[in-house]
Amino acid sequence: MIYVNREMPKQTKENKRSYMIAYNDNIEAAMQKLKKASSIKLYFYLLGNIDNYHFALSTKDISDRCNISVVSAKDAVNDLIEKRFLVLREKKTYDFYELPQEDIGLEPEEEVRKKFKRKSGEVQELSYSELDYFFNGYLDGKIADYQMSSLLMAICINGMTEEEIFALTKIFIDSGDTLDLSFIPGVVVDKHSTGGIGDKTTLIIAPIVASLGVPILKMSGRGLGYTGGTIDKLESIPGYRIDLSDEEVIKQVQDIGVVITGQTTSLAPMDKEIYALRDVTATVSSVPLIAVSIMSKKIAGGADKILIDIKVGNGALLKTKKEAQELSILVKKIGKVYQKEVHTIISDMNTPLGYCIGNSLEVMEAQRILKGEEIGNNLTKLCIDLSTELVCMAKGVLPQDAQDMVLQAIKSGD
């Protein structure tokens, strides 16, 4: 529920004419800021209710009164908040302005204190504008490392509400571009693992599912904490490039149906910066931050359906099944917001995956599994399960049929 405060100056005989001129100028200026039809409809609705000082609107109310969908209503609200036509006064109460207000935000220390501070036993919620000010400020170099580290630690200690998580995911996505893969035939899938000791599943499952006619685009990262990253492993291959451009990514998916690349400079660049800072500031094991990091990259990557392999155990970022289940629920909820089908598998990481540890050794082990030379170990079994799930998602076939296809692909070594 959004509560809107709207206080207009009283119109007298002396100020009515000058005020109406400003009113028209304001509309013209506002239209230059607002591009979406749904945002413009909401703007005019709020402007048309200038006599109502205080009124409450749910997303459904906005949908009905502005004749737009519920999803468009939510986007319109976020757009007006982002462009500061709606400015937070207190929790879920916004002031509406005809012109966008200067984005002064909170002082960094004040925002960190707000996240740490408890009021009536509850941590105060940060608004979209506050999160946007802080995180984009860090990306622009206006917020120092130590200030951002303090906020990340506050999040690790006190967590985030769902609204904060949804807002921060949008901020991460909007920090860069998104890929449009709608022109690629079939269902494009993506897979992510939260990482663990000996985790090299991407190197194995991506070629398998691609060989079965399922396009897969995988934007991978480096190691986080003590876990090894897919990009680190690939860089052990002499001459392998991990810094593909958006155009090269799209061309490779079209040509061979599979691409594994590092995070491009244009897709979710904020995640890349925050990811690196979390790695050196003991702020890795935060379920909300993990969810935002994963889903911002996955949504920006443009895949139709997404599979998340959530590792849990001594060798994983998440130590308990409760944390893994919490992450599973969160990524699915974020996916629903962006109309993406998200599946999760919670897998054991109390023992290393496979027999090899070390970037080059793990690449060679992945090659042996793809040739059908290693069967029966925990790594091979997990890769079969993940590949089966991806084929099911993309082709809509029964699990047993999908598994038979995967096993045949491994057996053939093609």
Describe this structure in words.
There is one protein chain. The protein has 414 residues and is α/β, with parallel strands linked by helices. Helix content is 51%, strand content 13%. It is built from 17 helices and eleven strands. The protein has helices at 16-33, 37-47, 59-66, 70-82, 108-116, 128-139, 145-158, 162-174, 201-211, 230-234, 246-256, 269-279, 287-301, 321-337, 359-370, 378-395, 399-412; strands at residues 2-5, 54-57, 86-90, 93-96, 118-119, 122-123, 189-193, 216-220, 258-262, 305-312, 341-348. It has a four-stranded mixed sheet. It has a three-stranded parallel sheet with strand order 7-10-11, with helices on both faces. Strands 5-6 form a two-stranded antiparallel sheet. Helix 14 (321-337) links the parallel strand 10 (305-312) and strand 11 (341-348). Helix 2 (37-47) crosses helix 4 (70-82), helix 13 packs parallel to helix 14 (321-337) and helix 16 (378-395) crosses helix 17. The N and C termini lie far apart (55 Å). Mean pLDDT is 84; it is low at 6-23.
